[in-house]
Amino acid sequence: MFVLHQPNIDYCFYIQLTIVQIKLRRTIVAVRKQSSGKWLCECYPAGREGRRVRKQFATKGEALAFERFTMEQVDNKPWLGEAIDRRKLSEIAKLWYNLHGQSLTAGERTYKKLCLVIEALCDPPATTFTAKDFAHYRDKRLSGEIYFSEKWKNGAEPVTVNLEQSYLSGMFSELARLGEWSQPNPLENMRKFTVAEKEMAWLTHAQIIDLLAACSRGDSDLPLVVEVCLSTGARWREAENLTRSQITPHKITFIRTKGKKNRSVPISKALYEKLTTRGDGRLFSECYFRFMAAVENTSIQLPKGQLTHVLRHTFAAHFMMSGGNILVLQRILGHHDIKMTMRYAHLAPEHLETALQFNPLATMPSGDKVAA
């Protein structure tokens, strides 16, 4: 359950003040009394550069009513001037989810995160939202002034706010492609934080034995989920959500994957027999937190932010160290882009051998070589 920290009052006031200033620039309306005693309504429905509408009335009430009528006409009849888009960010996010987000594998999770971010931004009208607003927001995220979980009270990581920026920017871009957003993308030219590549941990054979022993203590689901991940390179949720229909003789077919493409990976006869004895329907219960506890009961130390994904890294690392083909690994892991798989290329034996063979000391003329 997400807990939203109360947004800073001064920050929300700044957002609302900005909204008022932009509205004043966009829609110029004036109702004033003339020297003749009549009331003049003078307005620019499309902004200062647009068409002017003027009309006199006997009373102030009539002038104000005409002003309201004129502005409503602009919204309903575009030929009277460009309609003012009064949709809030939350409405834009809901529209994105209905028209596009719900078709994505992680669409619902992304939409929930968008809602949290938008609430922290005080849900301004979408047309008034700027890169400056997000810059101030992410500063408060990094400092911990705004947080969505007690876990991140001390501040979010730069990679997290980069992801939130991608969600918002992608929302505007997709709605523009669908013809539902005609304004510029407010975050289009905003640069993300530069983030150093994370350490990619993988387990040794001794650590694998230690981990499987810890997972097997009083648990029938957990060790088998771990074994599936280590045998196939599957993501944790792909393994945890397996059903009997996905198991065929000596093969697992992963469906509803992150990349939207099904893929089949061979498995050993022993693993196949273990899986087929578990009955029909879903094979495992959720065991993420049991895995976390099992890791804590071992001597294994993982980099910050890595837990279940270490199993996928371990499969790929051992595959390459044993001389596996990088293109085959790409298909097994289900990577769309070979660049993702190339993270493991340096572990290939031939890669290491070329470093030994072609370093500058090794390529010196034989008479000039430096003694080892």
UniProtKB/TrEMBL annotation:
CDD domains referenced in this protein's UniProt entry, alphabetically: INT_Rci_Hp1_C
Sorted alphabetically, the keyword list is:
DNA integration, DNA recombination, DNA-binding
GO function terms (MF aspect): DNA binding
Domain Tyr recombinase: from-to ranges: 198-357
SUPFAM superfamilies given for it? Answer: DNA breaking-rejoining enzymes (SSF56349)
Which residue numbers delimit the Core-binding (CB) domain? Answer: 87-176
Record GO biological process = DNA integration; DNA recombination
Q: Which regions form coiled coils? A: none
Q: Which PROSITE patterns match?
A: CB, TYR_RECOMBINASE
Protein name listed in UniProt: Site-specific recombinase, phage integrase family
Name its species: Serratia odorifera DSM 4582
